[in-house]
Amino acid sequence: MSKTLQAVRGMNDILPDDAETWEHFEDLVRDWLKSYGYRPIRMPIVEPTPLFKRAIGEVTDIVEKEMYSFEDALNGEQLTLRPEGTASCVRAAIQHNLVAGSGPQRLYYHGPMFRHERPQKGRYRQFHQIGVEALGFTGPDIDAEHIMMCARLWDDLGLEDVNLELNSLGSAEERAQHRAALIAYLEQHQARLDEDGKRRLYTNPLRILDTKNPELQDLVEAAPRLADYLGDESRAHFQAVQVLLTDAGIPFRINHRLVRGLDYYNRTVFEWVTTRLGAQGTVCAGGRYDGLVEQLGGKPTPAAGFAMGVERLLALWRESGGESDRVRPDVYVAHLGEQARRLAFRAAESLRTHGFAVLLHCGEGSFKSQMKKADASGAAVALVIGEDEAAAGEIGLKPLRGPGGQQRIALEALPEAVAGLLYTEEEDDDGSV
Ligand code: ATP
Ligand code: MG
Q1: Mode of pairing for the β-strands spanning 105-114 and 39-40
Q2: In 3-state terms, the chain is what percent helix, strand and coil (to 5)?
Q3: Is 84 in the pocket of ligand 1 (CB under 6 A)?
Q4: pLDDT value of residue 178
Q5: Deepest of 96, 188, 273, 346, by most Cβ within 10 A of its Cβ?
């Protein structure tokens, strides 16, 4: 017997009850992004592998062990399912001359990302991000704008316990000086390092600061701090971000060990973290990446951005009672008989023309069973069309949730009559009558 096929491990189906919550969330997010002047951009899901190697860095978790890479069987090209969006977005901006041609760009995208990680709660192999990138902005203002817009979204969604952690990674030169000091320090304690630490000592020592290994916590806590290697400009930039956040009443904690897992960051980096989701508590992360555009072959262009993990945010939204109601049709159309069916189609289409959401019964079934389906659909009104109605060219109209019995009206009068019933019901719902 053949085995039933299942989705790939770590890649989830999002079924209608959940997908409606996702769409509600996406609607809110789109409005929020527009209110800050961000514009949509859509990039392919598959990119040339070298893009991510160059942008994210060869010695990062993502590139070393998390990418879905494969060879195009037809032409031998090395391709990768995107593990994140920034690299693609910057590639697209360079390729289409966006910044040079039209000035600084505020952009956003959303969609699936792919990383071959161990699946667990809040960590999947296909997950979704909403990403925001601002290209061509040099000052601390855009860094502050990004953080402030996140704070507003958490507020709009009614999320609780989302805390901001902030750090500055300085410039490439400042990081190089700190790196040398960090390597010297870690060399003294080499025997204590775990396997990951030993492997990263000379390739990516900054990442050792980010270790989750409890036995290394005191060691990394006492390590040389990047903050002590920042020059005047980096210090002033970081200070200005903090002033703007303080003005906006946004609390933050400076986390000297916040380094981010992608190599392209410099200066401001931040993460929004919650304690409510267990181990996978980072719901949003980002920062400045002034070198990336040039590194990918564009003209030097300062930039900053962030990405939110949609699965984690939705889990938190659900926790905070933010689940959305089921989407319900306005009208359910029940009908019986050949002529009635033809009239039912006309009535349904006429209502849709007037902006109503209409569920037309398809298939067989007695009026009794159709009315059960009408109730279950959550519709406010049912149309009931039998042979009698069809012969008279009229429609039976029955409120399903408000008071009043069934009435018969002409097809032409239908939209107005339905509007009347829905309008009354809404007034009843919010108790304003
Ligand atoms: P983590 O430390 O949790 O692995 P990261 O630093 O790798 O996160 P980023 O590359 O900064 O994550 O991605 C931004 C956001 O995307 C994360 O803060 C998180 O909310 C979400 N995210 C990242 N990887 C996954 C995943 N495998 N499954 C679900 N969400 C994810
Ligand atoms: Mg990760």
Answers
A1: parallel
A2: 45, 20, 35
A3: yes
A4: 92
A5: 273
39 Cα to the center of ligand 1, angstroms: 23
What confidence score (pLDDT) does residue 168 get?
A: 95
Is residue 207's pLDDT more than 90? no
Closest ligand 1 atom to Cα of 284: 18
The number of the ligand 1 atom at minimal distance from the alpha carbon of 313 is: 20
Distance 288 CA to ligand 1 centre (A): 17
What is the tens place of the pLDDT at every residue in 131-177? 999 999 999 999 999 999 999 999 999 998 999 999 999 998 998 89
Which pLDDT score, from 0 to 100, does residue 425 have?
A: 55
SS (H, E, C) 286-347: EEECCCHHHHCCCCCCCEEEEEEEHHHHHHHHHHCCCCCCCCCCCEEEEECCHHHHHHHHHH
Number of neighbouring beta carbons within 10 Å of residue 308: 21
Count the Cβ atoms, other than its own, within 10 Å of residue 81. Answer: 19
């339905």: which residue's tokens?
418
- The alpha carbon torsion through 286, 287, 293, 299 (nearest 10 deg) reads 150
Say what the alpha-carbon torsion angle 212, 215, 216, 222 is, to the nearest 10 degrees: 120
Q: Give the integer Cα–Cα distance in Å for 391 and 339.
A: 8
Say what the pLDDT of residue 433 is.
37
Q: How confident is the model at residue 431 (pLDDT cuts 50, 70, 90)?
A: very low
Which residues, other chains included, contact 414 with Cβ-Cβ below 8 Å and sequence gap of 6+?
Answer: 347, 350, 351, 383, 395, 397
Which tokens hold the place of 370? Answer: 């159709």
Q: Decide: 272 and 283 in contact? Cβ < 8 Å.
A: yes
Centroid of chain to Cα 249: 25
* Angle value at C-alpha 40, between 290 and 69, nearest 5 degrees: 70
Find, among 248, 10, 277, 289, the residue nearest to 126 by Cα: 10
As given in the structure block, the two tokens for residue 303 are 């930039």
Instruction: Using DSSP, state whether 285 is helix, strand or coil.
Output: strand
Residue entry with tokens 């509007």 = 419
**CA–CA gap between residue 257 and residue 56 (Å, rounded):** 19
Q: Is the CB of 110 under 6 A from ligand 1?
A: no
Distance (Å) from CA 283 to ligand 1 centroid: 8
Does 260 score more than 80 pLDDT?
A: no
Would you call 365 exposed, middle or buried from its count of C-beta atoms within 10 A (0-12, 13-18, 19+)? middle
pLDDT range class, residue 289, cuts 50, 70, 90:
very high
